[in-house]
Design brief:
The complex is a heterodimer of chains A (about 110) and B (about 110). Chain A has about 110 residues and is mainly beta. Chain A is about 0% helix and about 55% strand. In chain B, the strands form two sheets. In chain B, strands 2, 4, 5, 9, 10 and 11 form a six-stranded mixed beta sheet that branches. In chain B, strands 1-3-8-7-6 form a five-stranded antiparallel beta sheet, with no helix packed on it. The chains are: A mainly beta (about 110), B mainly beta (about 110). At the A-B interface, strand 5 and strand 10 of A face strand 4, strand 5 and strand 10 of B.
Chain lengths: ~110, ~110
């Protein structure tokens, strides 16, 4: 299996622009998680889906952030408009099911907002 | 709010040393504790612990959970430069199935 796939791997954008991050979970996994990692705050869960349905989005920092999972093999995290404080590494992870807990992480997208 | 605290925040050792990394947790309706290793890229799964007092082992790495003390340790024996990484601990529990991560321990193993 190819593992969790994320794109792009690096994104540099200017403040105010829209940013879309993409994720393809491991085939057969039915839970998908979006995380943000910064030096100051560590790894924080933003939102997670089970069977394509958002279960908990309490970690989404504000309305500028939105996430979708239109089907079992694809999810997007969108930031509109982006701000410099959104600069971070964004990870997508998937697991076979929520109860099993073990999550497998993608390589991450390093976002820089100038 | 759930909380996971790791110590030390960073550690520098020489090859061949043994290290112990600590993790304490406050997780509502605790279910499991997980350890991940993060090198330059994504965290990779090491262990999941659910039962107190049972050691999980993989080569030179081992981990144990103490539910009474709400803590876990990760031991690495005969360290190698390839063990240099950030080690993350995460707790899982409650009805929302979230993993709450600690800030990590940065381990540097010098030759």
């Amino acid at each position: 299996d190819a593992g969790v796939i994320q794109s792009p791997r690096h994104e540099v954008t200017e403040m105010g622009q829209e940013v879309t991050l993409r994720c393809k979970p491991i085939s057969g996994h039915n839970s998908l998680f979006w995380y943000r990692q910064t030096m100051m705050r560590g790894l924080e869960l933003l939102i997670y889906f089970n069977n394509n349905v958002p279960i908990d989005d309490s970690g989404m920092p504000e309305d500028r952030f939105s996430a979708k999972m239109p089907n079992a093999s694809f999810s997007t995290l969108k930031i509109q408009p982006s701000e410099p404080r959104d600069s971070a590494v964004y990870f997508c992870a998937s697991s076979e099911g929520i109860v099993l807990d073990t999550q497998y992480f993608g390589p991450g997208t390093r976002l820089t907002v100038l | 709010e759930d909380k996971v605290v790791q110590s030390p925040l960073s550690l520098v050792v020489h090859e061949g040393d043994t290290v112990t990394l600590n993790c304490s947790y406050e997780v509502t309706n605790f279910r499991s504790l997980l350890w991940y290793k993060q090198e330059k890229k994504a965290p990779t799964f090491l262990f999941m612990l659910t039962s107190s007092g049972i050691e999980k082992k993989s080569g030179r790495l081992s981990s144990i959970l103490d539910k009474k003390e709400l803590s876990s340790i990760l031991n690495i024996t005969a360290t190698q430069t390839g063990d240099s990484a950030i080690y993350l601990c995460a707790g899982s529990g409650g009805s929302n199935y979230k993993l709450t991560f600690g800030k990590g321990t940065l381990l540097t193993v010098n030759p």
